Amino acid sequence: MITIKDINFSYDRNSKVLDSLCLSLSENKIHGIVGLNGAGKTTLLNALYGLVRIDSGIISREGKNLTKKDMSFLVTESFFFSNITGREYLSLFKNHKFDSDKWNGLFSLPLDQIIDGYSTGMKKKLALLGILKQDKPIMILDEPFNGLDIETCRIIRSVLLRLKEKGKTILITSHIIETLTNLCDYIHYLEKGTINYSKEKHDFAEFERELFESIENKNVELITELIE
Amino acid sequence: MIETIVKIRFKQIYRALIGLGLIRIIFLIGLFGFIVFVLFIETSKYPDSYYVTGLTALIILMVHAKRQDKLFLKTNFDNYKRICFVEYLISVSILITFLIFHFQWIPLLLLLSALYLIIQLDLKIKKRNLNTKLQQFIPSECFEWKGGVRQTLFILVTLWIIGFCTAFFIGSVPIVLFILGIIPFSFYEKGEPYQMILAYEMGTTQFLFHKIRMQLLLFSVLTMPLIAAFLVFHFERWYIPIAEYFIFISLYIYLILTKYAFYEPNSKSTSAQIFGTIGVFSGIIPVFLPVVWLLSIRFFFKSKENLNIYLNDYN
Q1: ipTM reported for the complex, 2 dp
Q2: Which of A51, A116, A190, B231 could join A35 via S-S bond, C-beta 3.0 to 4.6 A?
Q3: Does residue A202 sit within a domain?
Protein backbone atom coordinates (compact mmCIF):
# COMPACT_ATOMS: atom_id res chain seq x y z
CA MET A 1 0.00 0.00 0.00
CA ILE A 2 1.24 3.48 -0.91
CA THR A 3 0.08 6.00 1.67
CA ILE A 4 -0.11 9.72 1.13
CA LYS A 5 -0.99 11.40 4.39
CA ASP A 6 -1.83 15.07 4.91
CA ILE A 7 0.56 16.45 2.35
CA ASN A 8 0.68 20.18 1.80
CA PHE A 9 2.50 22.06 -0.89
CA SER A 10 2.44 25.63 -2.15
CA TYR A 11 4.56 27.55 -4.65
CA ASP A 12 3.87 30.78 -2.74
CA ARG A 13 2.32 31.77 0.56
CA ASN A 14 -1.03 32.77 -0.89
CA SER A 15 -2.33 29.55 -2.37
CA LYS A 16 -1.95 25.89 -1.54
CA VAL A 17 -1.61 23.61 -4.52
CA LEU A 18 -1.89 20.49 -2.38
CA ASP A 19 -4.05 20.99 0.68
CA SER A 20 -3.89 18.28 3.38
CA LEU A 21 -4.16 15.68 0.67
CA CYS A 22 -4.71 12.09 1.79
CA LEU A 23 -4.79 9.09 -0.50
CA SER A 24 -4.21 5.37 -0.18
CA LEU A 25 -3.16 3.48 -3.27
CA SER A 26 -3.40 -0.27 -3.20
CA GLU A 27 -0.56 -1.99 -5.04
CA ASN A 28 -0.79 -4.07 -8.24
CA LYS A 29 -3.65 -1.89 -9.42
CA ILE A 30 -4.14 0.91 -11.91
CA HIS A 31 -5.14 4.19 -10.31
CA GLY A 32 -6.47 7.14 -12.28
CA ILE A 33 -6.23 10.73 -11.10
CA VAL A 34 -8.85 13.05 -12.53
CA GLY A 35 -9.17 16.77 -12.04
CA LEU A 36 -9.76 19.96 -13.92
CA ASN A 37 -6.86 22.11 -15.13
CA GLY A 38 -4.97 23.53 -12.15
CA ALA A 39 -6.44 21.00 -9.71
CA GLY A 40 -2.92 19.90 -8.76
CA LYS A 41 -2.55 16.61 -10.64
CA THR A 42 0.97 17.18 -11.94
CA THR A 43 2.08 18.69 -8.62
CA LEU A 44 0.75 15.61 -6.83
CA LEU A 45 2.71 13.35 -9.17
CA ASN A 46 5.83 15.50 -8.77
CA ALA A 47 5.46 15.33 -4.98
CA LEU A 48 5.00 11.57 -5.12
CA TYR A 49 8.11 11.19 -7.27
CA GLY A 50 10.07 13.61 -5.07
CA LEU A 51 10.58 16.37 -7.59
CA VAL A 52 9.05 18.97 -5.29
CA ARG A 53 9.73 19.24 -1.60
CA ILE A 54 6.41 19.00 0.20
CA ASP A 55 5.82 21.48 3.03
CA SER A 56 4.43 18.80 5.33
CA GLY A 57 2.96 15.31 5.29
CA ILE A 58 4.12 11.76 4.68
CA ILE A 59 4.46 9.68 1.54
CA SER A 60 5.31 6.06 2.27
CA ARG A 61 5.18 2.55 0.92
CA GLU A 62 4.61 -0.22 3.44
CA GLY A 63 5.74 2.12 6.19
CA LYS A 64 9.01 3.06 4.46
CA ASN A 65 9.85 6.20 2.53
CA LEU A 66 8.98 5.99 -1.12
CA THR A 67 12.11 6.52 -3.24
CA LYS A 68 12.90 7.06 -6.90
CA LYS A 69 14.47 3.61 -6.92
CA ASP A 70 10.93 2.19 -6.85
CA MET A 71 9.37 4.48 -9.43
CA SER A 72 9.51 5.60 -13.02
CA PHE A 73 7.83 8.80 -14.14
CA LEU A 74 6.54 9.70 -17.58
CA VAL A 75 6.08 13.48 -17.76
CA THR A 76 3.44 15.19 -19.90
CA GLU A 77 5.83 16.84 -22.32
CA SER A 78 8.61 14.72 -23.71
CA PHE A 79 12.01 16.44 -23.82
CA PHE A 80 15.23 14.90 -25.04
CA PHE A 81 18.81 15.96 -25.46
CA SER A 82 19.50 17.35 -28.95
CA ASN A 83 21.27 15.33 -31.62
CA ILE A 84 21.05 11.91 -30.05
CA THR A 85 19.20 8.94 -31.51
CA GLY A 86 16.31 7.07 -29.96
CA ARG A 87 18.53 4.04 -29.41
CA GLU A 88 21.13 6.17 -27.63
CA TYR A 89 18.44 7.58 -25.34
CA LEU A 90 17.22 4.09 -24.44
CA SER A 91 20.77 2.87 -23.87
CA LEU A 92 21.04 5.28 -20.92
CA PHE A 93 18.70 3.11 -18.85
CA LYS A 94 20.34 0.11 -17.28
CA ASN A 95 18.25 -2.97 -18.00
CA HIS A 96 20.09 -5.56 -20.04
CA LYS A 97 17.05 -7.84 -20.22
CA PHE A 98 15.09 -5.23 -22.15
CA ASP A 99 15.13 -5.88 -25.88
CA SER A 100 14.60 -2.42 -27.36
CA ASP A 101 14.06 -3.67 -30.89
CA LYS A 102 11.49 -6.24 -29.83
CA TRP A 103 9.55 -3.69 -27.77
CA ASN A 104 9.83 -1.23 -30.61
CA GLY A 105 7.84 -3.72 -32.68
CA LEU A 106 4.83 -2.16 -30.92
CA PHE A 107 5.66 1.41 -31.90
CA SER A 108 7.78 1.16 -35.08
CA LEU A 109 10.07 4.05 -34.14
CA PRO A 110 13.13 4.84 -36.27
CA LEU A 111 15.47 4.22 -33.31
CA ASP A 112 18.64 4.98 -35.26
CA GLN A 113 17.46 8.41 -36.33
CA ILE A 114 18.06 11.60 -34.36
CA ILE A 115 15.18 12.34 -31.97
CA ASP A 116 14.94 16.00 -33.02
CA GLY A 117 13.25 14.81 -36.21
CA TYR A 118 10.61 12.75 -34.39
CA SER A 119 6.97 13.88 -34.29
CA THR A 120 5.30 14.68 -30.95
CA GLY A 121 3.67 11.25 -30.88
CA MET A 122 6.94 9.49 -31.68
CA LYS A 123 8.69 11.34 -28.85
CA LYS A 124 5.92 10.24 -26.49
CA LYS A 125 6.34 6.63 -27.60
CA LEU A 126 10.11 6.84 -27.08
CA ALA A 127 9.66 8.30 -23.60
CA LEU A 128 7.26 5.47 -22.83
CA LEU A 129 9.79 2.89 -24.06
CA GLY A 130 12.26 4.50 -21.63
CA ILE A 131 9.76 4.04 -18.80
CA LEU A 132 9.13 0.43 -19.78
CA LYS A 133 12.87 -0.23 -19.91
CA GLN A 134 13.33 1.09 -16.37
CA ASP A 135 11.01 -1.71 -15.20
CA LYS A 136 10.26 -0.16 -11.80
CA PRO A 137 7.49 -1.55 -9.56
CA ILE A 138 5.57 1.74 -9.58
CA MET A 139 4.87 3.61 -12.80
CA ILE A 140 3.65 7.19 -12.74
CA LEU A 141 2.25 8.30 -16.07
CA ASP A 142 1.20 11.93 -16.53
CA GLU A 143 -1.08 12.18 -19.57
CA PRO A 144 0.45 9.21 -21.41
CA PHE A 145 -2.18 9.31 -24.17
CA ASN A 146 -1.63 12.95 -25.17
CA GLY A 147 -0.68 13.27 -28.82
CA LEU A 148 -1.00 9.58 -29.60
CA ASP A 149 -3.14 7.94 -32.29
CA ILE A 150 -5.97 5.51 -31.52
CA GLU A 151 -3.88 2.45 -32.35
CA THR A 152 -1.05 3.42 -30.01
CA CYS A 153 -3.49 4.34 -27.23
CA ARG A 154 -5.00 0.88 -27.51
CA ILE A 155 -1.56 -0.77 -27.54
CA ILE A 156 -0.53 1.16 -24.43
CA ARG A 157 -3.76 0.19 -22.70
CA SER A 158 -3.05 -3.50 -23.40
CA VAL A 159 0.57 -3.14 -22.21
CA LEU A 160 -0.49 -1.43 -18.98
CA LEU A 161 -3.11 -4.09 -18.23
CA ARG A 162 -0.49 -6.81 -18.75
CA LEU A 163 1.98 -4.96 -16.54
CA LYS A 164 -0.63 -4.77 -13.81
CA GLU A 165 -1.05 -8.53 -14.04
CA LYS A 166 2.74 -8.80 -13.61
CA GLY A 167 2.46 -6.90 -10.33
CA LYS A 168 3.11 -3.27 -11.29
CA THR A 169 1.31 -0.41 -9.62
CA ILE A 170 0.34 2.25 -12.11
CA LEU A 171 -0.75 5.79 -11.38
CA ILE A 172 -2.09 7.62 -14.38
CA THR A 173 -3.65 10.97 -15.22
CA SER A 174 -5.65 11.84 -18.30
CA HIS A 175 -7.95 14.57 -19.48
CA ILE A 176 -9.86 12.03 -21.54
CA ILE A 177 -11.97 10.37 -18.90
CA GLU A 178 -12.95 7.44 -21.15
CA THR A 179 -9.31 6.33 -21.32
CA LEU A 180 -9.30 6.05 -17.54
CA THR A 181 -12.68 4.36 -17.09
CA ASN A 182 -11.58 1.72 -19.62
CA LEU A 183 -8.31 1.07 -17.87
CA CYS A 184 -8.28 1.87 -14.17
CA ASP A 185 -9.31 -0.09 -11.11
CA TYR A 186 -9.79 3.11 -9.11
CA ILE A 187 -10.34 6.72 -10.05
CA HIS A 188 -9.54 9.49 -7.59
CA TYR A 189 -11.07 12.90 -8.11
CA LEU A 190 -8.74 15.78 -7.30
CA GLU A 191 -10.20 19.23 -6.68
CA LYS A 192 -8.44 22.29 -5.26
CA GLY A 193 -5.47 20.30 -4.08
CA THR A 194 -7.31 17.58 -2.26
CA ILE A 195 -8.85 14.21 -3.17
CA ASN A 196 -12.59 14.76 -3.02
CA TYR A 197 -13.58 11.15 -3.50
CA SER A 198 -12.39 7.85 -4.92
CA LYS A 199 -14.47 5.49 -7.03
CA GLU A 200 -14.18 1.80 -7.73
CA LYS A 201 -14.70 0.22 -11.15
CA HIS A 202 -18.40 -0.55 -10.68
CA ASP A 203 -19.11 3.11 -9.86
CA PHE A 204 -17.32 4.55 -12.92
CA ALA A 205 -20.47 4.96 -15.07
CA GLU A 206 -22.24 6.89 -12.35
CA PHE A 207 -19.07 8.92 -11.64
CA GLU A 208 -18.73 9.87 -15.31
CA ARG A 209 -22.39 10.92 -15.56
CA GLU A 210 -22.24 12.98 -12.36
CA LEU A 211 -19.01 14.68 -13.39
CA PHE A 212 -20.23 15.67 -16.85
CA GLU A 213 -23.58 16.88 -15.46
CA SER A 214 -21.89 19.00 -12.82
CA ILE A 215 -19.52 20.60 -15.38
CA GLU A 216 -22.33 21.31 -17.84
CA ASN A 217 -24.71 22.68 -15.19
CA LYS A 218 -22.00 24.94 -13.79
CA ASN A 219 -21.53 26.68 -17.15
CA VAL A 220 -24.94 26.42 -18.78
CA GLU A 221 -26.07 29.94 -17.89
CA LEU A 222 -22.89 31.63 -19.09
CA ILE A 223 -22.86 29.64 -22.34
CA THR A 224 -26.49 30.60 -22.98
CA GLU A 225 -25.71 34.23 -22.27
CA LEU A 226 -22.62 34.23 -24.51
CA ILE A 227 -24.25 32.49 -27.45
CA GLU A 228 -27.37 34.63 -27.36
CA MET B 1 0.64 46.68 -31.69
CA ILE B 2 4.36 47.41 -31.97
CA GLU B 3 4.19 49.31 -28.70
CA THR B 4 2.62 46.29 -26.97
CA ILE B 5 5.28 43.94 -28.34
CA VAL B 6 8.09 46.27 -27.24
CA LYS B 7 6.54 46.53 -23.76
CA ILE B 8 6.37 42.72 -23.58
CA ARG B 9 10.04 42.50 -24.61
CA PHE B 10 11.08 44.89 -21.85
CA LYS B 11 9.05 42.88 -19.35
CA GLN B 12 10.79 39.69 -20.55
CA ILE B 13 14.20 41.33 -20.09
CA TYR B 14 13.20 42.58 -16.65
CA ARG B 15 12.03 39.10 -15.58
CA ALA B 16 15.24 37.53 -16.91
CA LEU B 17 17.30 40.06 -14.94
CA ILE B 18 15.34 39.46 -11.77
CA GLY B 19 15.95 35.73 -12.21
CA LEU B 20 19.71 36.34 -12.36
CA GLY B 21 20.11 37.65 -8.83
CA LEU B 22 21.76 40.84 -7.57
CA ILE B 23 25.44 39.86 -7.87
CA ARG B 24 25.12 38.69 -11.44
CA ILE B 25 23.08 41.78 -12.34
CA ILE B 26 25.90 43.98 -10.99
CA PHE B 27 28.42 41.90 -12.95
CA LEU B 28 26.33 42.25 -16.11
CA ILE B 29 25.85 45.99 -15.61
CA GLY B 30 29.64 46.32 -15.25
CA LEU B 31 30.18 44.32 -18.44
CA PHE B 32 27.51 46.33 -20.25
CA GLY B 33 29.08 49.61 -19.08
CA PHE B 34 32.46 48.44 -20.36
CA ILE B 35 31.00 47.54 -23.77
CA VAL B 36 29.23 50.93 -23.98
CA PHE B 37 32.52 52.66 -23.14
CA VAL B 38 34.38 50.70 -25.83
CA LEU B 39 31.61 51.49 -28.33
CA PHE B 40 31.87 55.20 -27.55
CA ILE B 41 35.63 55.19 -28.12
CA GLU B 42 35.54 53.00 -31.22
CA THR B 43 32.77 54.91 -32.97
CA SER B 44 34.75 58.13 -32.76
CA LYS B 45 37.41 57.16 -35.30
CA TYR B 46 37.77 55.80 -38.79
CA PRO B 47 37.93 52.87 -39.72
CA ASP B 48 36.91 51.44 -36.31
CA SER B 49 33.39 52.85 -36.61
CA TYR B 50 32.97 50.71 -39.77
CA TYR B 51 34.22 47.58 -37.98
CA VAL B 52 31.85 48.16 -35.07
CA THR B 53 28.96 48.73 -37.47
CA GLY B 54 29.84 45.59 -39.43
CA LEU B 55 30.14 43.49 -36.29
CA THR B 56 26.82 44.77 -34.95
CA ALA B 57 25.07 44.02 -38.25
CA LEU B 58 26.56 40.52 -38.17
CA ILE B 59 25.30 39.94 -34.63
CA ILE B 60 21.80 41.14 -35.59
CA LEU B 61 21.91 38.87 -38.64
CA MET B 62 22.79 35.91 -36.41
CA VAL B 63 20.00 36.80 -33.98
CA HIS B 64 17.52 37.13 -36.83
CA ALA B 65 18.53 33.76 -38.26
CA LYS B 66 18.41 32.02 -34.89
CA ARG B 67 15.31 33.54 -33.27
CA GLN B 68 12.54 31.04 -32.79
CA ASP B 69 9.56 33.36 -32.54
CA LYS B 70 9.50 34.28 -36.23
CA LEU B 71 6.70 31.83 -37.03
CA PHE B 72 4.69 33.15 -34.08
CA LEU B 73 5.13 36.74 -35.26
CA LYS B 74 4.37 35.85 -38.88
CA THR B 75 1.15 34.01 -38.08
CA ASN B 76 -0.15 36.51 -35.55
CA PHE B 77 0.87 39.90 -36.92
CA ASP B 78 0.57 41.38 -40.42
CA ASN B 79 3.44 43.78 -39.82
CA TYR B 80 5.93 41.33 -38.37
CA LYS B 81 8.84 42.78 -40.38
CA ARG B 82 8.18 46.20 -38.90
CA ILE B 83 8.11 44.64 -35.42
CA CYS B 84 11.51 43.02 -36.05
CA PHE B 85 12.89 46.29 -37.42
CA VAL B 86 11.77 48.25 -34.35
CA GLU B 87 13.22 45.60 -32.03
CA TYR B 88 16.59 45.68 -33.78
CA LEU B 89 16.53 49.46 -33.89
CA ILE B 90 16.02 49.61 -30.12
CA SER B 91 18.76 47.00 -29.61
CA VAL B 92 21.32 49.12 -31.49
CA SER B 93 20.01 52.49 -30.29
CA ILE B 94 23.15 53.17 -28.22
CA LEU B 95 25.37 52.57 -31.23
CA ILE B 96 23.13 54.80 -33.38
CA THR B 97 23.37 57.56 -30.75
CA PHE B 98 27.18 57.31 -30.69
CA LEU B 99 27.43 57.33 -34.48
CA ILE B 100 25.29 60.49 -34.60
CA PHE B 101 27.32 62.02 -31.77
CA HIS B 102 30.57 61.44 -33.66
CA PHE B 103 29.06 62.51 -37.03
CA GLN B 104 29.72 59.08 -38.52
CA TRP B 105 26.96 59.38 -41.13
CA ILE B 106 28.12 56.70 -43.57
CA PRO B 107 28.40 53.89 -40.98
CA LEU B 108 25.02 55.01 -39.63
CA LEU B 109 23.46 54.78 -43.08
CA LEU B 110 25.10 51.38 -43.60
CA LEU B 111 23.79 50.12 -40.27
CA LEU B 112 20.21 51.20 -40.98
CA SER B 113 20.39 49.72 -44.48
CA ALA B 114 21.77 46.46 -43.07
CA LEU B 115 18.89 46.27 -40.56
CA TYR B 116 16.38 46.90 -43.33
CA LEU B 117 17.95 44.16 -45.47
CA ILE B 118 18.16 41.68 -42.59
CA ILE B 119 14.42 41.87 -41.84
CA GLN B 120 13.69 41.12 -45.52
CA LEU B 121 15.61 37.85 -45.27
CA ASP B 122 13.80 34.68 -44.31
CA LEU B 123 16.81 32.96 -42.83
CA LYS B 124 16.89 29.59 -41.19
CA ILE B 125 20.06 28.04 -39.82
CA LYS B 126 20.25 24.49 -41.04
CA LYS B 127 22.13 22.31 -38.64
CA ARG B 128 23.94 19.46 -40.23
CA ASN B 129 23.85 16.35 -38.14
CA LEU B 130 26.18 13.59 -39.17
CA ASN B 131 24.91 10.27 -37.95
CA THR B 132 28.03 8.15 -38.44
CA LYS B 133 29.40 4.94 -36.95
CA LEU B 134 31.85 7.01 -34.91
CA GLN B 135 29.20 7.81 -32.29
CA GLN B 136 28.97 4.11 -31.44
CA PHE B 137 32.47 4.30 -29.98
CA ILE B 138 31.42 7.01 -27.53
CA PRO B 139 30.04 5.52 -24.28
CA SER B 140 26.25 5.75 -24.07
CA GLU B 141 26.30 7.92 -20.92
CA CYS B 142 28.33 10.59 -22.76
CA PHE B 143 25.30 11.81 -24.67
CA GLU B 144 26.72 15.36 -24.76
CA TRP B 145 29.63 14.08 -26.84
CA LYS B 146 27.40 11.96 -29.04
CA GLY B 147 25.24 14.97 -29.84
CA GLY B 148 28.15 17.41 -30.03
CA VAL B 149 30.30 15.21 -32.26
CA ARG B 150 27.38 14.87 -34.67
CA GLN B 151 27.25 18.63 -35.03
CA THR B 152 30.97 19.30 -35.19
CA LEU B 153 32.35 16.11 -36.70
CA PHE B 154 33.60 17.76 -39.88
CA ILE B 155 35.52 20.49 -37.99
CA LEU B 156 36.86 18.03 -35.40
CA VAL B 157 38.15 15.55 -37.96
CA THR B 158 39.60 18.23 -40.26
CA LEU B 159 41.39 20.01 -37.42
CA TRP B 160 42.68 16.79 -35.94
CA ILE B 161 44.14 15.61 -39.27
CA ILE B 162 45.71 19.04 -39.93
CA GLY B 163 47.20 19.12 -36.43
CA PHE B 164 48.55 15.60 -36.66
CA CYS B 165 50.01 15.96 -40.17
CA THR B 166 51.64 19.33 -39.48
CA ALA B 167 52.95 18.50 -36.00
CA PHE B 168 56.49 19.32 -37.18
CA PHE B 169 55.47 23.03 -37.17
CA ILE B 170 55.86 24.15 -33.59
CA GLY B 171 52.65 26.22 -33.51
CA SER B 172 50.40 23.72 -35.24
CA VAL B 173 49.51 21.29 -32.42
CA PRO B 174 49.09 23.98 -29.73
CA ILE B 175 46.67 25.93 -31.97
CA VAL B 176 44.71 22.81 -32.91
CA LEU B 177 44.65 21.71 -29.25
CA PHE B 178 43.24 25.09 -28.29
CA ILE B 179 40.42 24.94 -30.86
CA LEU B 180 39.67 21.28 -30.09
CA GLY B 181 39.59 22.22 -26.42
CA ILE B 182 37.12 25.04 -26.95
CA ILE B 183 34.67 23.05 -29.14
CA PRO B 184 33.37 20.70 -26.37
CA PHE B 185 32.29 23.75 -24.34
CA SER B 186 29.22 23.98 -26.56
CA PHE B 187 28.33 20.33 -25.84
CA TYR B 188 27.39 21.28 -22.28
CA GLU B 189 25.32 24.40 -23.04
CA LYS B 190 21.88 22.92 -22.61
CA GLY B 191 20.52 21.09 -19.59
CA GLU B 192 19.34 17.56 -20.31
CA PRO B 193 15.91 16.34 -19.14
CA TYR B 194 16.18 15.18 -15.53
CA GLN B 195 15.22 11.64 -16.56
CA MET B 196 18.64 11.44 -18.21
CA ILE B 197 20.31 12.38 -14.93
CA LEU B 198 18.23 9.87 -13.02
CA ALA B 199 19.16 7.17 -15.53
CA TYR B 200 22.68 7.09 -14.01
CA GLU B 201 21.18 5.93 -10.69
CA MET B 202 24.08 7.54 -8.80
CA GLY B 203 24.39 9.84 -5.81
CA THR B 204 25.22 13.50 -6.44
CA THR B 205 28.98 13.31 -5.73
CA GLN B 206 29.37 10.06 -7.64
CA PHE B 207 27.39 11.51 -10.55
CA LEU B 208 29.52 14.68 -10.72
CA PHE B 209 32.80 12.77 -10.55
CA HIS B 210 31.55 10.36 -13.19
CA LYS B 211 30.62 13.19 -15.56
CA ILE B 212 34.03 14.84 -15.05
CA ARG B 213 35.88 11.55 -15.45
CA MET B 214 34.13 10.75 -18.73
CA GLN B 215 34.76 14.25 -20.11
CA LEU B 216 38.47 14.04 -19.26
CA LEU B 217 38.68 10.57 -20.74
CA LEU B 218 37.15 11.57 -24.06
CA PHE B 219 39.20 14.77 -24.26
CA SER B 220 42.34 12.76 -23.54
CA VAL B 221 41.52 10.21 -26.24
CA LEU B 222 41.05 13.08 -28.69
CA THR B 223 44.20 15.00 -27.78
CA MET B 224 46.81 12.46 -26.65
CA PRO B 225 47.88 11.41 -30.18
CA LEU B 226 48.34 15.11 -31.04
CA ILE B 227 50.40 15.72 -27.92
CA ALA B 228 52.48 12.63 -28.68
CA ALA B 229 53.07 13.86 -32.25
CA PHE B 230 54.19 17.25 -30.88
CA LEU B 231 56.61 15.60 -28.44
CA VAL B 232 58.17 13.56 -31.24
CA PHE B 233 59.19 16.73 -33.09
CA HIS B 234 59.64 19.25 -30.28
CA PHE B 235 60.46 17.30 -27.14
CA GLU B 236 62.39 20.23 -25.64
CA ARG B 237 59.11 22.23 -25.59
CA TRP B 238 57.11 19.45 -23.89
CA TYR B 239 55.54 21.89 -21.42
CA ILE B 240 53.50 23.75 -24.10
CA PRO B 241 50.91 21.06 -24.95
CA ILE B 242 51.04 19.64 -21.41
CA ALA B 243 50.21 23.03 -19.90
CA GLU B 244 47.44 23.49 -22.44
CA TYR B 245 46.09 20.05 -21.62
CA PHE B 246 46.00 20.78 -17.90
CA ILE B 247 44.42 24.21 -18.42
CA PHE B 248 41.62 22.56 -20.38
CA ILE B 249 41.19 19.87 -17.73
CA SER B 250 40.67 22.68 -15.18
CA LEU B 251 38.21 24.35 -17.49
CA TYR B 252 36.20 21.18 -18.12
CA ILE B 253 35.88 20.48 -14.42
CA TYR B 254 34.73 24.06 -13.96
CA LEU B 255 32.37 23.82 -16.95
CA ILE B 256 30.63 20.66 -15.71
CA LEU B 257 30.33 21.98 -12.18
CA THR B 258 28.95 25.30 -13.49
CA LYS B 259 26.42 23.48 -15.62
CA TYR B 260 25.04 21.46 -12.73
CA ALA B 261 25.31 24.30 -10.22
CA PHE B 262 22.76 26.19 -12.33
CA TYR B 263 21.13 23.15 -13.89
CA GLU B 264 17.58 23.58 -15.15
CA PRO B 265 16.02 20.68 -17.05
CA ASN B 266 15.61 21.14 -20.81
CA SER B 267 16.98 24.67 -20.94
CA LYS B 268 20.09 26.79 -21.19
CA SER B 269 20.85 28.50 -17.91
CA THR B 270 21.80 32.17 -18.33
CA SER B 271 23.90 32.06 -15.17
CA ALA B 272 25.81 29.00 -16.39
CA GLN B 273 26.45 30.74 -19.70
CA ILE B 274 27.79 33.87 -17.98
CA PHE B 275 30.10 31.91 -15.69
CA GLY B 276 31.06 29.65 -18.61
CA THR B 277 32.26 32.76 -20.46
CA ILE B 278 34.65 33.49 -17.58
CA GLY B 279 35.99 29.97 -18.10
CA VAL B 280 36.56 30.59 -21.81
CA PHE B 281 38.37 33.84 -20.94
CA SER B 282 40.70 32.00 -18.61
CA GLY B 283 41.61 29.70 -21.51
CA ILE B 284 42.84 32.81 -23.32
CA ILE B 285 44.07 34.80 -20.31
CA PRO B 286 45.40 32.27 -17.75
CA VAL B 287 45.39 34.98 -15.02
CA PHE B 288 41.73 34.07 -14.56
CA LEU B 289 42.60 30.43 -13.75
CA PRO B 290 42.75 30.87 -9.94
CA VAL B 291 39.26 32.40 -10.13
CA VAL B 292 38.12 29.33 -12.04
CA TRP B 293 39.64 27.00 -9.45
CA LEU B 294 38.00 28.85 -6.59
CA LEU B 295 34.65 28.97 -8.36
CA SER B 296 34.96 25.24 -9.12
CA ILE B 297 35.08 24.49 -5.40
CA ARG B 298 32.09 26.75 -4.79
CA PHE B 299 30.13 25.23 -7.69
CA PHE B 300 30.88 21.67 -6.60
CA PHE B 301 28.86 22.24 -3.43
CA LYS B 302 26.23 24.24 -5.30
CA SER B 303 25.89 21.42 -7.86
CA LYS B 304 25.42 18.87 -5.11
CA GLU B 305 22.71 21.02 -3.58
CA ASN B 306 21.02 21.65 -6.93
CA LEU B 307 21.05 17.99 -8.02
CA ASN B 308 19.97 16.69 -4.65
CA ILE B 309 16.27 16.91 -5.49
CA TYR B 310 16.83 14.44 -8.35
CA LEU B 311 19.51 12.15 -6.95
CA ASN B 312 18.87 12.25 -3.19
CA ASP B 313 17.51 8.71 -3.18
CA TYR B 314 20.80 7.39 -4.56
CA ASN B 315 23.04 9.20 -2.08
Answers
A1: 0.83
A2: A190
A3: yes
